[in-house]
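Tip: read the tokens left to right.
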């Protein structure tokens, strides 16, 4: 539908319709009301991209995440989207599925859409030599990455400290035989957790076993890894997991074997997604404050609040899945 059609119905000039559509104040209230009524009757929808080109700026933000099936990434996206919508921004999302080539494709796509800011919330390695990043003249916020440059913000979480808090919590409960179930892909955040587990247990003289799940799915991977762990002959009093999804899978396998949690084996997760609180038993975990992350990202993209590096400390959330270790671990 053309502006000329709306102007004819409202009995005003095309320029008057244009001023109303683009939000200019220099239109009499009675005229504006008549134009708005005509727009509604004719089901007019403005071309937002054309409007942004005329205005010379965009009210669209791009968000790239690693996995839209993982509640951790979804929650950050929704929190960011909520703040953006309140401020009049549209948010577009892209998913990499942990693949670096898809990351580059998403960046190209969003720059082509002329987004005003870009959030890259991924676990895979971000190549600092990506030409798209070097050529982008917009604010960019990274989570779990440090890419130098102007208008760049890097947000980091201390995963190693978080895992050390979990190991210490279990150690203080008397646990001396611990197993860790890790992620199958080599990702910076998950490798930090694994390395911290190994370092902390070695320092404390704890007997430990490390194994990785074979899938990305979380629940199934955690359950399958628990089968391999218990069938291996190693009898842990505690199982630490790379994230809460894996921990739910661990709980499922232990329940199927009539192994009590935390009576026989304690279990911990990581991330503090919603299911950790509502599973049975509720899961002891490390909280990553997603609302703070989303707020930091939004401000850096829209309010000029750009800082080179932001470090966020972990919080230990103790729930029902951890307890005092039995002196004789279950075989």
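Filled-in amino acids:
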């Amino acid at each position: 539908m053309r502006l000329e059609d709306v102007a004819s119905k409202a009995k005003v000039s095309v320029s008057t319709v244009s001023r109303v559509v683009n939000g200019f104040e220099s239109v009499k209230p009675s005229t504006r009301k008549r134009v708005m009524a005509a727009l509604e009757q004719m089901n007019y929808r403005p071309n937002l991209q054309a409007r942004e080109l005329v205005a010379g700026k965009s009210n669209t933000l791009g968000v790239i995440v690693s996995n839209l099936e993982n509640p951790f990434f979804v929650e950050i996206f929704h929190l960011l989207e909520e703040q953006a919508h309140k401020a009049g921004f549209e948010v577009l999302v892209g998913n990499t599925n942990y693949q670096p080539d898809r990351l580059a494709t998403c960046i190209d796509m969003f720059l082509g859409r002329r987004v005003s800011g870009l959030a890259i919330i991924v676990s895979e390695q971000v190549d600092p030599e990506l030409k798209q990043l070097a050529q982008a003249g917009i604010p960019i916020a990274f989570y779990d990455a440090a890419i130098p440059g102007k208008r760049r913000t890097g947000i980091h979480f201390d995963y190693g400290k978080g895992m050390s808090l979990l190991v210490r919590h279990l150690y203080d409960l008397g646990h001396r035989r611990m197993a860790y179930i890790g992620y199958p892909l080599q990702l910076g955040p998950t490798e930090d957790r694994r390395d911290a587990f190994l370092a902390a247990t070695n320092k404390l003289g704890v007997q430990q076993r490390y194994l990785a799940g074979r899938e990305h799915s979380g629940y199934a991977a955690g359950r399958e890894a628990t089968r391999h762990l218990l069938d291996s002959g190693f009898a842990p009093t505690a199982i630490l997991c790379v994230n809460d999804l894996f921990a739910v899978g661990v709980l499922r396998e232990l329940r199927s074997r009539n192994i009590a949690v935390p009576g026989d084996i304690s279990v911990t997760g990581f991330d503090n997604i919603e299911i950790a609180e509502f599973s049975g038993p509720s899961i002891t975990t490390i909280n990553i404050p997603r609302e703070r992350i989303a707020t930091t990202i939004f401000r850096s993209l829209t309010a000029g609040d750009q800082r080179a590096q932001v470090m966020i400390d972990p919080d230990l959330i103790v729930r029902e899945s951890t307890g005092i270790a039995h002196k004789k671990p279950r075989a």
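The first strand starts at residue 60 and ends at 65. Residues 52-56 have pLDDT under 50 and may be disordered.
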